[in-house]
Amino acid sequence: MAASEGHRLSKELNLLDVYVIGTGSMLSAGFFLLPGIAASKTGTSVVLAYFLASVLAVPALLSKAELGTAMPRAGGVYYFLDRSLGPIVGTVGGLGTWLVLVLKSAFALLGMGYYVALVVSFPAKSVAVALTVVFVVLNVLGAKESSGLLRVLVTLVLGFLALLVLQGAVSLLGGPGSAAFHGSSEPLFTHGSKGLVYTIGLVFISFAGPIKVASISEEVKDPDRNLPLGMFLALLTASAVYVVGVWLMAEVIPTDAFHVDNTPVASAGKRLFAWLPGPLATSLVLVPAIAGLAAAGNAGILAASRYPLAMGRDRLIPEAFGRLGRTGSPTLALIATGAVMAFVIWTLNVEGLAKLASTFLLLIFALVNLAVIVMRESRIEAYDPGFRSPGYPWVQLEGLLAPAILIGVMGTGPILFAIGLVGACLAWYFYYARDRVVRSGALLHWFERLGQGRFEGLDPELRGILKEKGVRAEDAFDEVVARSFTLDLGPNETFEEATRRASERLAQRLPVSAEHLAEGFLHGTQTGATPVSHGTALPHLRVPGATAPEMVLVRSLSGLTVEVGDQFTDERHGTLIHAIFFLVSPEENPGQHLRLLAGIAGRADDDDFMDSWLAAEDPVEFREAVLRDERFMSLHVAGHGPSSGLVGKELKAVEWPHGTLVALVRREGEILIPSGSTSLLAGDRLSIVGEANGIQAVRTRFGSVADLEIPDFISGETDL
After folding, report:
1. 65 pLDDT exceeds 80?
2. Which of the pair, 23 or 12, is modelled with greater confidence?
3. Is pLDDT above 60 for 367?
4. What's the confidence (pLDDT) of residue 452?
């Protein structure tokens, strides 16, 4: 949600959840309702139209994956646009994305209405409006979207579609249902290239899944991997389903009937499964169709309500929209969402609804591609996506050009409506939101010459996100701590003296003088560039010529006062601190430098850190306080027992678990920095760092927990 939100959502969604949410959002009315109408606009090339629409969605998918790994926040596209292009575009993007989800959800429930109308004798629109009211009430009462339920529904839909394709293959080979295939006599292009381009735009709403995934990016575990991979797999699945499924419909349903069919999947299924008993064939088709449309409609209502919720919290719209009701649901946002859905269901036909939804989706996708360009060109160091879109900037430029072309052929109605929405959003921003929001986007970082317009709060906000994300495996945070120097200050030593002593240690490993380092650390502290929080200070520099990050851990038991300057004013204030971490990194890798700082800051924020830090009695415990227990261990190489197999082996000959590293070897009182050719001897003690799973695997393989000790991380000169 907004940055102001006082709490963050728990990260509970894995790769499978991302996949099913994205897939479930795309296998909706675009498949169950729209194919026949789309075919009437272009002929049998409707299959090509769906395929090309999925291809044209790729730039936006890549851009959303990059933004989602850099800024994993609920609110998704709204948050991306607001923080990159500023609150003016954030207002347009937030309301536009909300409207896309409203229209897509209305589209799904209208499709559900047509399928339900096959069973009960009520008008489809009346059924759809009634379903809208039911789902809104359920959400207001606190019904939550369940990823587990969505897994079941997506599995049901995919299982049915697989069965449909299998039956189609059997029928083509002359098996049961072969009479269903009549073979389409329709030309490939009934309305030429313009008809094809129009149809691509019309069916584009079918691939809105990435918007839904972007809105839950804050809740995804390991977003650097799971977001882009899950989104890509979902798009690949949806594209395959649409291409094969729509081809089957065109081949099975007579052309004239297909063009006016609002339940084409049911029609195709009944023909292919005509050899089954009537009720069974009907149930086989209707149950997964209704289930899939219901899931998409309900999920869309819930996702759509998050946008006015986020915008209300950012004060772009009345703050009442940003409040939760007694059941924990955004009541006003849900009611507004449901009211607009009911209105568009009642007033628009299927084609009009699809055109309007696709127009706004294309507009949002274009803005997302622009957002990546702005974030990249802003050169904000804290912009550190775990996934970077390949082909930049050409992919994003194509993602700007294609929507403009498609919107241009959609007709004057959707174009005028889109222009009207943008105009209304701009008027609303200047009338209502401008005086309530003190924020701009990364765009002004790009045009830094504009000076005072630049929003200095964006970089700290992105740094806060970095702290939540933590370090990456390739950052070797454990190794940096393992080889760090340590200092324990006397009761009367000052911050300046600590800086001088730390700089002398660091100069032993860096191509920079101690005086230059000390000057840089002190300047950063005086100007407010040194983070200070929870009794911990993090002076830091990046220097040219450094080959690896280096650090000094400094403790003051009695505490010392650091005069910290304000980053935006000339004021200074004294802060009592007990821990100082001096970090120096290579100039060429600002992202890693910031992630290491974020890793240290994250550990310093832990409730147990300061107690462990102040209780440390030697260099081993200093480093132990900074590292978490599950990420390091000490292994005794014994002449007997599980570790005896290591005796006489070179380190490179041992199959160490993935993600682990032997950082130090203590042998007869000496510390060795090992290489792959280091041979292990009985009595050696290995200090091992790594990922939690890897460390546990070492423990399981080479010794019980009772045999393990806290590691002796001593490297360089240590003063205690």
Report:
1. yes
2. 23
3. yes
4. 38
Q: Provide the CATH number for the domain formed by 470-625 in this structure.
A: 3.40.930.10
pLDDT band at 182 (very low <50, low <70, confident <90, very high): low
Alpha-carbon torsion, ordered 93, 98, 99, 102, to 10 deg: 160
CB contact at 8 A, 615 and 641? no
* Residue 599 and residue 471 in contact, taking contact as beta carbons nearer than 8 Å: yes
SS3 521: helix
- HEC string for 253-309: CCHHHHHCCCCHHHHHHHHHCCCCCHHHHHHHHHHHHHHHHHHHHHHHHHHHHHHHH
pLDDT in tens, 521-551: 888 777 666 777 778 888 888 888 888 889 9
pTM of the predicted model over 0.85: no
Domain boundaries, the chain: 15-435, 470-625, 628-714
Instruction: Look at domain 628-714 and name its CATH class.
Output: alpha beta
In DSSP terms, 636 is beta-bridged to 685
Instruction: Give the pLDDT mean for 208-234.
Output: 79
Cβ within 8 Å of residue 492, ≥6 positions away: none
- Look-up of token digits 């915008």: 311
Rounded distance between C-alpha atoms, residue 445 and residue 451, angstroms: 9
Helices marked H in 117-207 — which ranges?
A: 124-140, 147-172, 192-203
Bridge partners of residue 564, in order along the sequence? 573
Tokens linked to 486: 């340590």
**Do residues 177 and 271 touch, judged by C-beta distance below 8 A?**
yes
CB 666 within 8 A of CB 685: yes
Distance, CA of 634 to CA of 712 (rounded, Å) = 7
Burial string for 178-188 (b: 16+ CB within 10 Å, else e) reads eebbeebebee
CA distances from 282 to 55, 246, 250, 252, 279 (A): 34, 19, 20, 16, 5
Instruction: Provide the pairing of β-strand 536-537 with 572-586.
Output: parallel
Tokens of 366: 């274009």
Q: Give me the pLDDT at residue 440, please.
A: 45
Count how many Cα atoms sit within 13 Å of the Cα of residue 579 in the half-sphere of its side chain: 28
The class that CATH gives domain 15-435 is: mainly alpha
As a whole number of angstroms, the distance between CA 120 and CA 91 comes to: 42
The answer to whether 428 touches 398, Cβ cutoff 8 Å, is no
Q: Which of 50-64, 68-82, 189-203 has the lowest mean pLDDT?
A: 68-82
Pairwise CA distance, residues 497 & 40, whole Å: 80
The residue that leads in pLDDT, 579 or 161, is 579
CA distance 644 to 498: 44
201: left (phi over 0), alpha (psi -120 to 50) or beta: alpha
Distance CA 230, CA 13 (A): 11
Nearest to 479 by CA among 632, 694, 693: 632
So what's the pLDDT on residue 84? 66
